[in-house]
Specification:
The protein has a domain at 31-144 and 196-220 and 259-292 and 327-337: Vaccinia Virus protein VP39 (Rossmann fold), CATH 3.40.50.150. Helix content is 33%, strand content 24%. The chain has helices spanning 11-20, 33-36, 40-43, 45-61, 79-91, 174-183, 197-209, 224-228, 262-271, 282-288, 299-303, 305-322, and strands spanning 9-10, 68-73, 99-104, 117-120, 131-137, 146-151, 154-160, 166-171, 192-195, 212-219, 221-222, 238-241, 244-246, 255-257, 260-261, 276-281, 331-337.
């Protein structure tokens, strides 16, 4: 039997085992993903409220279909969908009676999740093909990637052990080299890249499964001009454990994540049937959807201290969602199938 601790694997295979294998990070019950890192979904209910406003715009553009599907891919423990269920009557009452909430996640249905929220292991199990809105918040960054490094003989796969030690492996194959040439060309010896072809394929299938509506990918990302400028020459693969960024070790104890080549993903969405595309950032998108983060008028503190404290707390939460250098830097890839992208999210499109 192979000793896994000392087995050398390409990073993609090692990530897959560490995240999704038996006992892997995304199948753990104790101290699961929500314990290890903070996302927009868990940071504030204002994220859910903003997405409900977006859903309302999409609903109107689709002429109020029944049902209106709102699907979260990589739904984790269902925090975002739970918040949407709780707030839809207040934020989008016209949508509430037709809204069908679905979480798609490899992990089992969370204990105590509201029965109004459906839970599936694959998007393809949503039938018929949905009309509505698909949200993928911090999903693609966890789809496994091959890490490659430029050597004197060309690009080679990086192999890793469970303790994080690395070595040079086999040369990349023809398909891997083709992806690198198109999206992340390497020049100097020692430069690294992460091959995102599996992410491209996953997003293509997501867009292709949407009958009509919007698919929104939200993630830390980069584009080819940034990559060619050498901004990501060391790669982006990292780990998170107990709320701290750590050296990535594929032993199942930490989240493993790498930024998304968002332009490659957008091109895949077009191949999957997207009619139009908008690429923006979370700061701009959420501001357009009513998330501000400004401090309340101090006069309110004198007239209604309790309301002022609540408004101050809300402002802090909203500010975190749009903060530069933090959650506000997430890329938002918005792609439409059979409908126009609402002007609120694409005013100049």
């Amino acid at each position: 039997m192979v000793d896994e601790e000392h087995e050398w694997l390409p990073w993609r295979a090692a990530m897959d085992r560490a995240l999704y294998g038996d006992g892997g990070f995304y199948h753990r019950v104790e101290g699961g993903p929500g314990h290890h890192f903070r996302t927009s979904s868990t940071a504030s209910v204002h994220f859910a409220r903003a997405l409900l406003r977006l859903a309302a715009h999409v609903d109107a553009a689709l002429d109020f279909p029944d049902p209106f599907w709102l699907i979260e891919v990589a739904a984790a423990r269902g925090a975002l969908l739970t918040a949407m269920h709780a707030h839809v009557e207040a934020v989008a009452p016209q949508l509430a009676p037709r809204l069908r909430l679905v979480g798609v996640e490899v992990a089992a249905r969370p204990v105590g999740l509201d029965p109004a929220i459906d839970w599936l292991s694959r998007l393809e199990d949503v039938s018929p093909r949905p009309v509505g809105l698909i949200i993928a918040n911090e999903w693609l960054d966890n789809i496994t990637v091959d890490v490659v490094e430029q050597t004197e003989h060309g690009a080679a796969l990086v192999e890793v052990r469970t303790d994080g030690q690395e070595r040079a492996g086999a040369p990349v194959d023809t398909d891997q080299q083709r992806w690198l040439d198109e999206w992340w060309p390497l020049c100097d010896e020692g430069e690294r890249a992460e091959i995102g072809s599996a992410r491209d394929s996953a997003w293509l299938r997501t867009v292709a499964h949407l009958s009509r509506g919007l698919a929104v990918c939200i993630d830390y990302a980069h584009t080819r001009p940034e990559r060619e400028a050498g901004l990501w020459g060391a790669g982006t693969l990292t780990g998170y454990r107990d709320g701290r960024q750590v050296t990535p070790e594929p032993d199942g104890s930490c989240d493993l994540t790498a930024h998304v080549a968002i332009d490659a993903v957008a091109a895949a969405g077009v191949r999957g049937g997207a009619d139009s595309t908008v690429l923006t950032d979370q700061r701009a998108a959420l501001r357009a959807l009513g998330v501000r983060g400004g401090r309340p008028d101090v006069e309110l503190a004198r007239t209604d201290p309790h309301a002022y404290l609540q408004a101050l707390a809300d402002a802090g939460q909203q500010a975190e969602l749009v903060a530069r250098g933090g959650l506000g830097d997430f890329a938002w890839l918005v792609q439409a199938v059979g409908v126009a992208i609402p002007a609120v999210i694409a005013p100049n499109h």
